[in-house]
Amino acid sequence: MSIDIIARPHVILPVLSAKVTLGLLLFAALYTFVPYLFRKNVVDKDGNPIPPGPLFRFPYLPKFPELSLDKWAKQFGPIYSLFVGNQLYVVVSDPHIARDIFVNNGAIFSSRKDYFIKNQAILRGRAITASQYNDKWRAHRRIAMQFMTPRAVQSYADMVDYESHILMRSFYSEGCHGTVPVNPQYVSVRYTLNVMLAISLGTRTDSFKDPLIQRTLDIALEFNDLTGPVANMADFITPLQWIPTSKQIRGRKLHDEMVEVYGALLMKVKARMDAGEDVPDCLAKTLWLVRDQENLDWEDMCMLTAVFVLGGVHSTAGIVQWFLALLPSHPDVARRAHEELDSVMGVDNWPAAEDETRLPYLRAIIKEVQRVHAPFWMATPHYSTEDFVYKGLFIPKDTALVLNCYTLHHNEERYTDPHIFNPDRYLNDTLSCADSAKLSNVMERDHWAFGAGRRICPGIAVAERVLWLAISRLLWSFNVHELPSEPISLEEYEGTSGRTPVPFRVNLVPRHERVHSILQLRDEIPA
Ligand code: HEM
């Protein structure tokens, strides 16, 4: 037989290719028609259909999924559905529907899908963001909120102020006073990392050489790469979970690394507490104190601490980087910001937290950066725990719900010329992002970058303070220039769950002599 095959390959080949062709045709037919039949059959007992949407199932969505979601919103309307593998997604692209679903019906739409890579392999159903909507989530969120309310932020205001001073000094010295181009990624990550380390572990990195900075960066980038809401086929095609893949291996390795890094830091806090040291109030200290009462196991503690760093570092550092990427191509914005700063602050004082209300154009810039470059275009999908009918459309239990931030942020009824970076649209907006999210008129909400409903980002107040001090002081201190030979891309980005710009460099040229002296004021501070 084998001799026959070798001797007459031309006979075997047509037979094989006919089988392959038949198989392919069958697969294509199934792929085309089964979803169609299936979609038609997904109705509730009263015959209400699921929201309309694209016919085909998607194994997963390719690069720039937000653009596909936006295209479908235009085609199928403000609430549509699509199957990714065997998972039904409902995509919400209208502010009123977003409020109806995520806020008014939060009791039904506030859980999380048990993603195979993100939730099972890496976070193991913990870390607040991966928890199902249950008492454990409530308890963990309550513990975390102690460090994230506006009042809590006030209690460590000096620390954030101090870290932003170090940030400016780092930009100044890294850029050799404006003569050497700077990649803002490392410097801004260290700033947000130090803030989050102080809040979560009562510590900070003293130097750029601290290996914790690079490890945090590596962990966060690996996390962002592995965990996009529609990034892994195994999340949607169950049999693929039985085959060991490199992503599964990477996910488990990442989990172990997170336990190793944050576990070691937690143990350091414990050692200090055991030694009777006066450990500053921080998440880790609280976790050790309430461990038994709240039934926290070791993985709960490590993952809770890790998510503070993961949730808080890259998102805020990313906005600082997007701001620096945008500014050189918007000289009018820079000019008006400088005019406002010069007339309100002058050159003798740089902006502090309490100056925010006196600098409305600067506040508007920060909101506009968040609108045009929200780090999470799909927020973190919510998951439904009951069947629900919305205006005649059936949303079955176990549906993943996407807040389509990209389309919401480019809604022409809400934002004139939405593709233009124009801080003026926020000039009369005096509310914080947290207060804006509570507005009863959703068309007045500033943006949706922090999500919606019961799972809305609990770190908004922290993020706002961190961003204000970084961006207002950057504007006061420097003129930002693009390098003619290194154009900055505003379209490309890194990460599938959290977006940061692809690395770029800018020249940060001090605006006046006073920058030099103000940065020397705290010489006792390690840089
Ligand atoms: C610009 C900065 C930030 C942005 C844009 C952002 C955005 C988001 C979004 C979109 C969600 C999902 C919301 C939803 O499910 O509807 C979220 C959740 C979360 N964020 Fe943030 N975030 C930022 C900063 C922070 C900071 C500084 C912290 C920590 C101090 C933090 C901690 C968390 C946590 C723990 C969750 C999970 C909440 C839950 O599932 O109940 N975030 N964030």
TrEMBL record:
The answer, when asked if Ribonucleoprotein is one of the entry's keywords, is no
Binding of heme, residues:
457
UniProt pathway: Secondary metabolite biosynthesis
Q: Which GO terms describe its molecular function?
A: heme binding; iron ion binding; monooxygenase activity; oxidoreductase activity, acting on paired donors, with incorporation or reduction of molecular oxygen
KW Thylakoid (keyword) present: no
Needed cofactors? heme
PANTHER family reported in the protein's UniProt record: CYTOCHROME P450 MONOOXYGENASE ALNH-RELATED, P450, PUTATIVE (EUROFUNG)-RELATED-RELATED
Q: What is this protein called?
A: Cytochrome P450
Q: Which organism is it from?
A: Cerrena zonata
Lineage per the UniProt record: Eukaryota, Fungi, Dikarya, Basidiomycota, Agaricomycotina
